[in-house]
Amino acid sequence: MGAWGTGPMENDAALDFAGDLSDGPEDTVTAGLRTAMTGVLDTDDYIEGSDLDAAIAAAALVAARIDPAVPIGVNGRDHLGRSPFTVDADLRDLAARVFTRAFEPENNEWHELWSDGGSLDEVTAALAPFRAAVDLPTQS
Q1: InterPro entries from the xrefs (predicted)?
Q2: Which residues contact 36 (CB under 8 A, 6 or more apart)?
Q3: What average pLDDT does range 51-76 have in this prediction?
Q4: Which of 74, 72, 139, 66 lies closest to 96, judged by CA?
Q5: Within a domain: residue 7?
Q6: Lower CB density within 10 Å: C or N end of the chain?
């Protein structure tokens, strides 16, 4: 899996994605975030773990831009600082949907790997602050 922790930036695919994104102009960064997230959301095909790792990294960057207190780690902070983008309602929605999709087991290698490794509860807890940052409060 190339992961050394359960955080969203603690795996090779996430850091590769964030590295490719860093230092680009805002429109390129925003497009890269959207592409990573829609790539896993707009398919009924089997989602490779590395593709979901990149999408989760994109969603985590969005969450960290919304709430600087989320524990994105030193690598995430570095990439966030070098990646200019503004969070709009669409990016926020995509990020929320990515976190939801990550925990749906159907056609999902990422979920299989964490579940088979006995660490699904740990990764769920690690991503909880990020999910909270992008979840919009429900209107009553």
Answers
A1: DUF4259
A2: 17, 54, 55, 57, 58
A3: 96
A4: 66
A5: no
A6: C
